[in-house]
Amino acid sequence: MNKTLISKIRFVTSLYLVLGMLMLMGGVQVAYAASLTALSNTLSSQKVSTLANHDLQFTTPTGVASGQTIIITFQSDFSIAAAMDFTDMDVLDDAANVTLAAAPSGATWGAVRTSATVITLTNGTTAVGAGSVIRVKIGTNATNQSTGVRQITNTTTNGSKTVAMTGTFTDVGTTTVSILNNDQVAVTATVDQSLTFTISDNTVEFGTLTSADDFFADNAGGNPTEVEAHTLVVGTNAGSGYSMTINGTTLTNGSFTIATTSANTASTIGSEQFGLRMTASGGVGAVSVPYAAAGYAFDSLNFPDQVASATGASADTTYSVRYIANIAANTEAGAYTSTLTYVATANF
Question: What predicted TM-score, i.e. pTM, was given to this entire model?
Answer without folding.
Answer: 0.66
